[in-house]
Amino acid sequence: MELRNLITFIHVCEFMSFSKAAKHLGYTQSAVTQQMQQLETEFGVKLFERTGKHFSISAKGLELLPYANQMLSLASETKQVISNAQKPSGLLRIGAIESTCNYVLPEILEQYMKAWPAVHISVWTATTLEIMEMLRKNQVDIILTLDERVSSPTWVTAWEQSNDVLFLCSPIHPFAGRTDVLLQDVLKENLLLTEKGCNYRQVFEHDCDLRNLSIQSNLEIGSIGNILNFTKQNLGITFLPAVVAHKDLAEQTLSVFQIQDYSMLMLIQLVYRKDKWLSPAIQELIHLFFRINPVSMGKKL
Question: Which residue from 90, 99, 171, 242 has the fewest beta carbons nearer than 10 Å?
Fold first, then answer.
């Protein structure tokens, strides 16, 4: 089994496209197709399903994916340990939720890739529970989440930073700039909600339940970008982490309001498994978080 075929397989799964994987890796599409056929022949199973224009990973392909990630991670670790390599190289797998992936990682990765071009970075975006499960299964090396404090005896929080969840509206909304809005009045408004399973939505719903209040809104939007745009167009109000909204607030296309006797605080956290070997690639990622965002309570290596 050739590692290069597994690398290609991981990229095909990441991009859900042979052509995009080929472009990213600098291969021809026919070379990618050939490598995937070699894997399928070697395992004796179909790794991908094709129905007309529809393309998906087969059940066996999904089974192979975590093993492929582990094998590449182990190969990278072995090479660096045996060669005593000090400069970051190899594969770095990051799991992130949408808000941290879109609004925290870009600045970090821009500087990281310039400093360490030999590192291949794979970013997987999913819900908090999903990336935590990926970490447990060693499908990613480190996760960047935004949640209440992660507490596990088998995990290490390398870096963390507090981040308020802000209540947002259009500058022309009656709530704009107010500091005395009642929670029950907020719940009468058209609330633009993130999808179910979002951590700060769960906290808000739980807090409302404790006060015997219920959310009336039935508008659920899967994309944070769309929630921001709808809020700016005064189609409703919302609540999102400050890191997501700071640009629009600076441009005054959104306004903050405060709820009387209620607030919500979350933590942006960079977490890895305690039993994880910290390669130079992982260590440099953690160091970069401290350099760019120095205010933290995490563990500096």
Answer: 171
